Every structure is written in C-alpha cells, then in structure tokens.
Amino acid sequence: MEKRFIEVPRTGRYYLIGNLTQPKSVWVCLHGYGQQSKYFAPKVKALDNGENLIVVAEALNRFYLSGYNGRVGATWMTSDDRELDISDNDRYLEHLVSGVYKEFNLGDIKLNLLAFSQGIATGCRWIAHSKLQFNQAILWAGSIPPDLDWEKETDRFNRIKIQYVFGDQDQFFDNEKIESNRQLFALAGIEHQLVTFEGKHEIDDNVLMNLLQ
C-alpha cells in the first residue's frame, strides 16, 4: 500500500466583529478544541472596544462532539499526519488575514493574536512561519508547542508583547504544568508576562479588557 497526499482548495469559515470601517488594530482569535467560531466570538467580545476589527477564525476540521449527530465542534489538528495539518493551518491563517487587510485596505495597522487553549499551539506556529508582523499575542490557557525551535524564534517573539494567561482554578493546568510550558520561553530568552486570575478554563472579560490597556 502506497501512501500519497494531494493538495486541494478548502473553504474556511470565520466571523468579523467590531469596527469594520476604520479600525485602529486587528485581532485574530483562535478558538480551543471542539469549539466553533460563532460560539467563540461572544467569548472575546471584550476586544470590541470600538477601535478593533476582530477576525474569529475557525479550524478547518469539524466533527460531532458526541456520537454521530448533534453539536459540532472543530479542531486545529490531531496527531495523524500532524505536519501537514500544521502547514495547512499556517497557509489558511496567512491567506485569511492577508485577505482581510487587502479587503479593508488596512495598510500597516497593528496585527494582534488572541489564542485560547488548543489555539495557542496553532497561533505560535503561525507566528513563527508568518511573513506578517505581530504586535501583541495573548495566549490564554493552553500549551506552548514544544516542537518549535524556540531558540531560533527568540528575536521574532521578542518583538511581540506576549501575555500568558491562566485561571487559578484551571482544571487542565496546575502550576507545575504552567511552569513547564513557560520554560520553553525562558530557555530561549523570550520575554513574556504571566497573568493569573480567579477562574477556570475560560476567558474572563475584565481580565481581557485590562490586557488591552
């Protein structure tokens, strides 16, 4: 049996909220495992301060969350042929954001990222491979991808304001696991701010608004 691959066009789904006329900055939002962009958009509504154009991208791979029907979620990747999924995600997000900048004639206004949970790994890999320039990255309640050569990415990521955010009752991340992830940044000399709040594995509106100030 011979294993082969073929590249085909895909149709991605995304939502735009916020200032669609004269935004001062763009925020790209990446959801977590099993979520959809239309349900994730309300969770990042604190970004809508009247000045931001918010692009809520949805992962290309959708599936039933339970059984064979009912609620549908999406995932950025699995362990199966993961390198191809990573490459597909990079191209998808690059094409999406470049298209938004062109459509709205945004010029060189600031580009920012908010990535939640599983979206963090996808977001970090995209930043590492992107030709776009990022201003701020809020990485909320997820793991830093260990497969990146972080020492080669030090200069790129140190040009970005990075905030790593966790609730103190996050059911998926205890302090030991958080510190283990932070070591990937620390060993590469990548500056970042750890932000904690009272809460679980969720986005807190007030915390998010404060991070924009």
Protein architecture, described:
- By secondary structure, this protein is an alpha/beta fold.
- 29% of the residues lie in helices and 23% in strands.
- The strands form 2 sheets. A 7-stranded mixed beta sheet has the order 1-3-2-6-7-8-9. Strands 4-5 form a two-stranded antiparallel ribbon.
- α2 packs across α3.
- It is globular and about 55 Å long.
- The model has no long low-confidence stretch (mean pLDDT 96).
CATH architecture: 3-Layer(aba) Sandwich
Order of helices and strands: EEHEEEHEHEHEHEH
Query: Spatial order of the strands in the main sheet?
Result: 1-3-2-6-7-8-9
Calculate the terminal CA-CA distance, rounded to whole Å: 57 Å
Features:
213 residues; alpha/beta; Rossmann fold; seven-stranded mixed beta sheet; two-stranded antiparallel sheet; globular
What is this structure's SSE topology?
Elements: E1 14-18, E2 25-30, H1 37-40, E3 52-57, E4 61-64, E5 72-75, H2 82-103, E6 110-116, H3 119-129, E7 136-140, H4 154-157, E8 161-167, H5 175-188, E9 193-197, H6 205-211
Parallel strand pairs: 2-3, 2-6, 6-7, 7-8, 8-9
Antiparallel strand pairs: 1-3, 4-5
Q: How would you summarize this macromolecular structure in one to three sentences?
A:
The protein contains 6 helices and 9 strands. The protein has 213 residues and is α/β, with parallel strands linked by helices. It has a single domain, classed as Alpha/Beta hydrolase fold, catalytic domain (Rossmann fold, 3-Layer(aba) Sandwich), CATH 3.40.50.
